[in-house]
Specification:
The chain is mainly alpha-helical. Helices cover 49% and strands 9% of the residues. The chain has 6 helices and 3 strands; from the N terminus they run H-H-H-H-H-E-E-H-E. A 3-stranded antiparallel β-sheet has the order 1-2-3. Helix 2 packs across helix 3, helix 2 packs across helix 5 and helix 3 packs across helix 6. It is globular, with a radius of gyration of 16 Å. The two termini are 27 Å apart. 34% of the residues are buried.
Length: 171
C-alpha cells in the first residue's frame, strides 16, 4: 500500500507540473531528470545492435547517474547524492552491467536532442540534493564525456574540463 500511495503522489505531482507548463519550457523540465543522457545511451545501445540493449528504464537510470555526476563536476551536486543514487539503484538490481556504447553514437543523439536550443544548448537536470532539482543549460559535450567516463560508461577520460552553465532552481 505504501508503494501505491507513493506512485499516486508522484502522478499527482507530475499532473500539476504538466498542466502548469504544457509546452515544457519551465518547471516541467525537472521531469526530464535522467532522460537527456538516458535517451542518448538507449539509442547508442540500439545502434550497436548487441544483445546488451538497454530498456528505457535502465537507460534513464544510467542517465540519472551521469546527470548527477555532471552536477558534481559543476559543483552543484554533493558526492553523497551520487553515492545514495548508486546505492539505491544497485539494491534494485540496476548498474550491474554498464552498457558498452560508442561516444560517437551518444554525441549524435545529444546533438539532435529536442530540448537543445540555439540559445541554451544542451540542457540537463541535476540535483543539488534529493528533492532539489536544477535545470542546467549549455552543458558542453566535453563535460558529458567526462561524466560518462567517471560513471564508467566511456572508454577514456577527456583531457580537459570546460564548465559553462546556467543554473536555475526549479520548484
Amino acid at each position: 500500500l505504501v508503494l501505491a500511495e507513493l506512485i499516486a503522489t508522484c502522478l499527482r505531482f507530475k499532473a500539476r507540473l504538466v498542466a502548469a507548463d504544457e509546452r515544457d519550457h519551465g518547471a516541467r523540465r525537472i521531469l526530464n531528470f535522467g532522460h537527456t543522457i538516458g535517451h542518448a545511451l538507449e539509442h547508442a545501445a540500439m545502434a550497436k545492435k548487441e544483445e546488451t540493449t538497454l530498456t528505457h528504464g535502465e537507460a534513464v537510470a544510467w542517465g540519472m547517474l551521469v546527470e548527477l555526476r555532471l552536477g558534481e563536476i559543476l559543483g552543484l551536486t554533493s558526492p553523497k547524492t551520487f553515492a545514495r543514487a548508486w546505492k539505491i539503484g544497485s539494491s534494485l538490481g540496476l548498474y550491474q552491467r554498464p552498457p558498452r556504447v560508442s561516444w560517437r553514437q551518444i554525441q549524435r543523439r545529444l546533438r539532435r536532442d529536442k530540448k537543445a536550443t540555439r540559445t541554451h544548448g544542451l540542457g540537463i537536470v541535476t540535483l543539488s540534493k534529493v528533492g532539489s532539482p536544477h535545470w542546467i543549460a549549455n552543458v558542453s559535450e566535453l563535460m558529458v564525456q567526462q561524466a560518462l567516463a567517471e560513471t564508467g560508461l566511456a572508454p577514456s577520460r577527456p583531457s580537459s574540463r570546460v564548465t559553462p552553465y546556467t543554473k536555475r532552481q526549479m520548484p
